[in-house]
Amino acid sequence: MISLALCQFNPTVGALNKNAPRLLDYAQKAAQQKVTLILTPELSLCGYPLKDLVFDAGLLLACDWWLSWLSQETPIPMIVGAPFEGFNAAFWCYQGEVKLVARKRLLPNYQVFDERRYFRDAAEDGFHGFDWRGKKFGVTICEDAWGEETFWPFGGYEVDPVQELAEDYQVDFLINMAASPFEQGKPKKRLEMFQRLAKRYAKPVVVVGQVGANDGLIFDGGSVVLGKKGEVLIEAKAFQEELITCKL
Predict the structure, then answer these.
(1) Which of 46, 63, 93, 142 is catalytic?
(2) Which residue ranges make up each domain of the chain?
(3) Is 247 annotated as catalytic?
(4) What's the pTM value of the predicted model, to 2 decimals?
(5) Residue 142 catalytic?
(6) 178-223 pLDDT, tens per residue?
(7) Distances (CA, A) of 149 to 21, 31, 55, 153
(8) Catalytic residue among 46, 104, 203, 235
């Protein structure tokens, strides 16, 4: 059994000294519930969208400091989203260790998105994930899970990170860390997409999303754990912070 906590989080953009202690508080609450691993959304440490703050050297140094602080303080392993060397990245934080586990590969550049201005894409980056208690966790960051061509009228992307993780690396669990802006009809479409991925690869899918509102964007969360047949095992309430737990 793997016991997971999903921290559906509402960060304040750029306020690392506020976000990091609040993430730690959720990790402590998860540990009290005997959970062994906590997951957080895309760029959870600094908030999304970070926009031109991503070019601020002081903020990037502060991200490194707070990741180190979380790694020393968290009672259980925590997967945290933060920028790193021009990438939108995810880190393992635990027992003083900060380990890079994923860099975002698919950068949306349409509608409200302008990520190619702010980040580099990790086109050929190898394995994205980590091993924990004898299991392989494949980590994707938001758009990475939208690589299947049937989701897009224009044919989609040239690569499909989920397919690579499921088929080439044979991961046991698929994790998606997201900051997915709300629009009418999107929660239903997003859930159906993840259910399709779970069924296609016969693997549990874990999605942890951001909530709140930043810079004109509203985030509904969409945090959910799906079984390998696409069944909903647990789902967070929309538009509010919540810590949900699940055993797989």
Answers:
(1) 142
(2) 3-247
(3) no
(4) 0.96
(5) yes
(6) 999 999 999 999 999 999 999 999 999 999 999 999 888 999 999 9
(7) 39, 39, 32, 8
(8) 104
